[in-house]
Every structure is written in C-alpha cells, then in structure tokens.
Automatic annotation (TrEMBL):
Residues that coordinate or bind ATP: G103, Q104, T105, G106, S107, G108, K109, T110
Coiled-coil positions: 321-346
Protein family: Belongs to the TRAFAC class myosin-kinesin ATPase superfamily. Kinesin family. KIN-14 subfamily.
Domain Kinesin motor intervals: 22-314
Protein name: Kinesin-like protein
Domain of life: Eukaryota
Region of the whole protein represented: 231 to 576 of 847
Length: 346
C-alpha cells in the first residue's frame, strides 16, 4: 500500500509538473566531508521528498519538501547525468534549455556542473562536459563558432572563441575560471562569488529534416549564503553584496513568476536578463538545488530548499521547438535562387 501510494504520488507530481511545463527541480545532497558528522537531513524518500530538521531541536523543526528528484550523497555523476540527458536531447530537437546550479558555497554546485576539480583531469566529469560531449558526438559539422553580437547584454569583456571539441570548451572554461573572481573566504577555498555561464548555440536538423536552432545555458551560480556567514569584509563584502543582489533579483523574478504577477522584474540584473527567455519563456529549465548536509548549514539548507520550492511552482508554459519546416526552407531556397538569377542577369 505505502509503496504504491508513494509511486502514485511520484508519478502524479511529475506528471502535473510535466503538463504544466514547470521549472523542474532536482535536489542534490553532497556527502558529509572531513570533520562534519551530524546531518540536518532526516529522511530522503524515493518519491522526491526530503525531510530536514534543526539537529538541535529536531522535534519542533521538521519540514518536508517535494521535488522532481532527490540525489542522495552516494549518487554518482553518471547517475545525475542520466537524468539530465533527455534535456540535452531536446536541445538537439530545437528546444531552448537552461540548467542552473543553486546553493551555498561548498554545497557541490561546481562538482555537479564541472566535476570535482572543475577540470578535465578528473574521472567524475560533470554535466557541462557530458552535455558538450553528447552535442559534439551528434554534430556533423565542425564549423568554427561564428562571432555575433548579443543585442541584449552589454558584456564588454566577453570574447567568442572557435571550438572543435568538448575539451576545447572545457579548457576555455578553465581559463575563465582562472579569471573568475574567487578568493578564500571562511567557507571554502574554492568559493566563487561570481556566476559562471556557458551558453551553447546549436543549429541542427530534427528527424524529419527540419532545421532547428536552440541554445543551452549551463549556469554555475555564485554561492547563495548570506554575507555574514562567509565573514567577508571590505572589497569582498562589496562584491558579495553585489552578487547577493543579482541572486536576490533572481529570487524576485522567480517569486513574481510563481505568483503570476503581471510585471516580472527581469531588468534588475544582468543575470535575470540573460536568463529571461529560460525563466519566463519558451524553454525547458532545470534547477539543481544543492545542499550541504552538516548541522552547521541548516539555516542555509532551509533557505535553499524554500527557494527551490518556489522555483518548482513556476510554470513556463509549453516549450516549442525552434524549427523551420522543410516547406519554408525550400521556399527560402527558391527565393535565394531567384535573387541570384536576377543578380546574374543585371
Ligand atoms: P560549490 O561549487 O557549491 O562551492 P564544490 O562543488 O566546490 O561546491 O564542492 C565543495 C566540496 O565538496 C569540494 O571539495 C567537492 O569536491 C566536494 N563535493 C561536492 N559535491 C560532492 C559529491 N556529490 N560527492 C563528493 N564530493 C563532493
Ligand atoms: Mg563552485
């Protein structure tokens, strides 16, 4: 009885989310590390539910959250990617896809997106590498990346570079990582106070030969912790507040979307402008909510779970593949041929 109910609950929840086209939320719990011993995670159900409590007063603080999936501390990178792969396939079918990692510093965002050392040297490569690998595997053309100006964003230091393989992209990302504002805060030496965003534009053909155009955003967000926890001061504090501002703008946008407000404040930060089409438009969006299980992180864990819960209420509407039918393409080709013929005559 119970197992059946759990199964039904799971499929109903996922089905409803699927029908509504909601932001999908996967929660990932990293293992306890080093001296950490007491966990604030009380129970993880195989139905996507999770129960947390303040280990100091468990009786009165128990809270349950429900997501599309929970990855426990023993989940491997491969298992995580397997659950993500269908989204990567839909990029090839012409859907815009956005995958973003949220959570406090040290909760495993970079581990999920890139891998343990954030690089190629490791076995446990993350989603970005696996996704690029899949995209390159199916691609037939190795056309150099074309430069185009992004009308929406003014990123003066942005550069476009041609790539031939997943490792080219990862090496570029490592270079970016070096330039990324990060410094040892009290929380984690690999802490990052900036966002890392990798966008892949894909031109493809679907099964019926229709031309598809889509984009894939892979986003490793800055740590979501409150500033006072990382004991940042001076310039770092200013930067942290700025980062927290863009994350809180993201929070405002998600709240406004979840409440179906008529005004959605996308323009308040570059991050939300960049993610606008993925959060409110024609896209399939997946959020990884990362939590650190140790007792000390309880407050941040709770805040991440609440944020994630709000995100899972956001309905994106049905995403459409960006395709051009064969008919339209043929007509366009005819027009081009006629133009050429006309030009040749003149
Ligand atoms: P974040 O990017 O959120 O600051 P990291 O990805 O750097 O966090 O992870 C913090 C530490 O925890 C790193 O040493 C990382 O290797 C380790 N870690 C994170 N997630 C996992 C996991 N699922 N399995 C094993 N180790 C992990
Ligand atoms: Mg990181």
């Amino acid at each position: 009885g119970y197992n059946q109910a759990v199964k039904e609950n799971k499929s109903l929840y996922n089905l409803l989310q699927e029908l509504r086209g909601n932001i999908r939320v996967f929660c990932r719990i990293r293992p306890l590390i080093n001296s950490e011993s007491i966990s604030s995670i009380e129970h993880v159900g195989n139905d996507g539910s999770i129960m947390v409590c303040d280990p100091l007063k468990p009786q009165t603080t128990r809270k349950i959250f429900q997501f599309n999936k929970i990855f426990g501390p023993t989940t491997t990178q491969d298992e995580v990617y397997k659950e993500t792969q269908s989204l990567i396939r839909s990029v090839m079918d012409g859907y815009n896809v956005c995958i973003f990692a949220y959570g406090q510093t040290g909760s495993g965002k970079t581990h999920t997106m890139c891998g343990p050392s954030g690089g190629l040297s490791s076995q446990d490569l993350g989603i970005s590498y696996m996704a690029l690998n899949d995209l390159f595997k199916t691609s037939t053309s190795r056309e150099d990346v074309k430069t185009s100006s992004n009308g929406l964003l003014n990123l003066p230091d942005a550069k476009k570079c041609p790539v031939q393989s997943p490792s080219d992209v990862i090496n570029l990302m490592l270079l970016g990582e070096k330039h990324r504002a990060s410094s040892p805060t009290a929380m984690n030496h690999r802490s990052s106070r900036s966002h890392s965003i990798l966008t892949v534009h894909v031109n493809g053909k679907d099964m019926s030969g229709n031309v598809t155009r889509s984009s894939l955003h892979l986003v490793d967000l800055a740590g979501s912790e409150r500033v006072d926890r990382s004991e940042a001061t001076g310039d770092r504090l200013k930067e942290a507040q700025h980062i927290n501002k863009s994350l809180s703008c993201l929070g405002d946008v998600i709240t406004a979307l979840a409440q179906k407000n008529s005004h959605i404040p996308y323009r308040n930060s570059k991050l939300t402008q960049l993610l606008q089409s993925s959060l409110g438009g024609n896209a399939k969006t997946l959020m990884f909510a990362h939590i650190s299980p140790e007792a000390d992180s309880y407050v941040e864990t709770l805040s991440t779970l609440k944020f994630a819960q709000r995100a899972s209420c956001v309905e994106l509407g049905t995403a459409h593949a960006n395709k051009e039918s064969n008919e339209i393409r043929e007509l366009k080709e005819q027009v081009e041929n006629l133009k050429r013929a006309l030009a040749a005559k003149e």
